[in-house]
Design goal:
heterodimer, B: alpha/beta, Dna Ligase, domain 1, 2 domains, 14 strands
Chain lengths: 236, 307
């Protein structure tokens, strides 16, 4: 477990610049909360809050899709895997790292959202429920991207991830909402995006649990694929 | 005989995804490294040295054949706790050198004050104790190679696999690495050393193997290989250089080489001509000569890449 934690923390640390850039959007929300009339401009604040939520979902795909590629390209992966670290542990570290990066962001967003939206009348407990949905969606999206990144470059990995996450969403629109739960990233995202002051939305733990289970499944699949990949070969 | 690293009939092919072309990097490659020796692994660029090392470390899988490291199959993660590895192009995270070493040590299960002390110790060994608080991202290539070496030895490994460990080092640092390797061997460690610096290999390695086009071209004890030339150099005085074919006048004497089995006849001829024998020595070859001989193009006789 220790190597997994070390790799995860190291990964999150390596992503500090994109993370800090992303956190500027949370800072923007906090800034708007400071300078604006929270009650009068609450819809604008909610919009920025949702925008921040969408950004982190996209970033989780970026984090997951480029993790292995960057490590292989820089050849830093060799020094790590030359230690007593199994490939499965390495991948677990990356999955956990993506999740930690997203948790840090969602925590900051949740704190800012609790203050700004809470002041404006949005239930604070629901802000944290939405953040839980977001973390679950990001962990799943990041893991799917990571799985594709074991054998594709980041560009194709992101495309393939968008397809895998988008097809159930599309099926949910055409064939019925149940199809949207096949890979519930879209459903979880929709929970955040569709919430409003008048109707914050129902609290349902099912998609979160499903996302957790699917994250585990995709992680196992990633580990299986990654075990057969020649990592010392040039990635280009 | 106890082997710590064994390649057993390993073939490795790289396949191009688009063109379906295959490149055979290793071809039925077998090799066994004994415990407690420094083993030199030589070969021209593209011979398959790094491929062999990466297979041993479990970074890639052989197309056929298998191998064992410390009696476990290649790729066994737990075994790497007893292995130190330095890649050809050192690439490490950008953080303070001491923290970096602690990070890699912790990945090998080390912790606490033992790890802290060991991190300081290895940085001292590689001569970077004054730079331990500096970010490795700002290091020169030579310093980076030394940090790489420090992370390789932080766990006090039984087997040290080094891919070009001195390529970016200055002569002083090379001496440091040489002493480090000899010290490790004296402590009973095994070192598998891939290098192009043949003079270094000649100085420290007990055995060497030359890899060429994915195949093992030559292997043996360094001392045996260097003396394998069946020629004897005779230096005489008191006779003309024209008396012996290929003889050259040097420092008031005459020097020439003869096949070792003709040595006696040559000496008798020197005496019969009234000459005096100054010295008789077996011709000692250099590793470079052996390397060039092994890697020579069979048609032109010129080492590949020199044409």
């Amino acid at each position: 477990m220790k190597p997994v934690l070390l790799i995860a923390i190291n990964f999150a640390r390596e992503q500090r610049w994109p993370m800090l850039t992303l956190l500027l959007w949370v800072l923007l929300l906090a800034f708007l909360g400071l300078i604006s009339d929270i009650h009068r401009q609450r819809e604008d604040l909610l919009f920025v809050f949702k925008l921040d939520a969408v950004y982190v979902s996209a970033f989780s795909i970026f984090f997951g899709g480029s993790a292995i590629y960057n490590e292989r390209r820089s050849r830093r992966i060799l020094a790590v895997l030359s230690k007593a670290v199994g490939r499965q542990q390495y991948l677990s570290g990356l999955v956990l790292g993506v999740t930690i990066a997203c948790v840090i962001y969602c925590f900051a967003l949740g704190m800012t959202g609790s203050w700004t939206l809470g002041e404006a009348g949005f239930p604070i407990s629901h802000v944290w429920f939405l953040m839980t949905c977001l973390v679950a969606a990001c962990a799943l999206a990041g893991t799917v991207a990571l799985m594709f990144s074991t054998f594709l470059n980041p560009f194709f990995a992101a495309g393939a991830t968008a397809m895998v996450l988008g097809i159930p969403a599309l099926a949910g629109q055409i064939l019925g909402p149940r199809w949207g739960y096949v890979i519930p990233v879209w459903q979880l995202g929709a929970t955040v995006v569709n919430s409003s002051f008048d109707s914050p939305g129902a609290i349902s733990w099912f998609p979160i649990l499903l996302a957790g289970a699917e994250t585990l499944a995709f992680w196992l699949l990633s580990a299986r694929i990654f075990a057969h990949v020649d990592i010392a070969v040039a990635v280009e | 005989m106890q082997f710590v690293l064994e390649f057993d009939n390993i073939t490795k092919e790289y396949r191009s995804f688009a063109s379906k072309r295959r490149l055979r990097a290793l071809d039925s490659f077998s090799l066994a490294v004994e415990a407690g020796e420094i083993f030199g692994f030589l070969g021209p660029n593209g011979a398959g040295k790094s491929t062999a090392i990466h297979l041993a470390m479990g970074f890639m899988r052989p197309t056929s054949g298998n191998g064992r490291m410390l009696r476990k199959p290649f790729g066994h993660a737990g075994t790497r706790r007893r292995v130190g590895f330095l890649a050809e192009n050192v690439a490490l995270y950008h953080r303070r050198a001491e923290r970096l070493i602690r990070f890699y040590g912790a990945l090998n299960g080390m912790s606490g004050t033992h790890l802290e002390n060991r991190a300081r110790e290895v940085l001292e060994i590689v001569g970077l104790q004054d730079h331990s608080k500096r970010n490795a991202g700002k290091f020169s290539r030579g310093m980076l190679q030394r940090v790489g070496l420090a992370q390789a030895i932080v766990n006090d490994p039984d087997l040290l696999i080094l891919d070009e460990p001195t390529s970016a080092l200055d002569p002083l640092s090379r001496v440091m690495v040489r002493e480090l390797l000899l010290g490790a061997r004296n402590a009973g460690k095994t070192i598998f050393l891939s290098s192009h610096l043949l003079s270094e290999v000649e100085l420290v390695c007990d055995r060497v193997a030359v890899l060429h086009r994915g195949r093992l071209a030559r292997m043996g004890r360094t001392s045996d290989l260097l003396q394998a030339g069946e020629q004897t150099e005779i230096v005489v005085c008191g006779i003309a250089a024209s008396q012996f074919q290929g003889a050259v006048a040097r420092d008031g004497g005459v020097s020439f080489s003869v096949p070792t089995h003709n040595q006696r006849a040559a000496l008798e001829r020197v005496w019969s001509l009234g000459g005096e024998v100054v010295s008789v020595n077996p011709v000692r070859r250099t590793l470079e000569e052996i390397f060039l001989e092994v890697t020579a193009d069979p048609e032109s006789g010129v080492p590949k890449g020199v044409q």
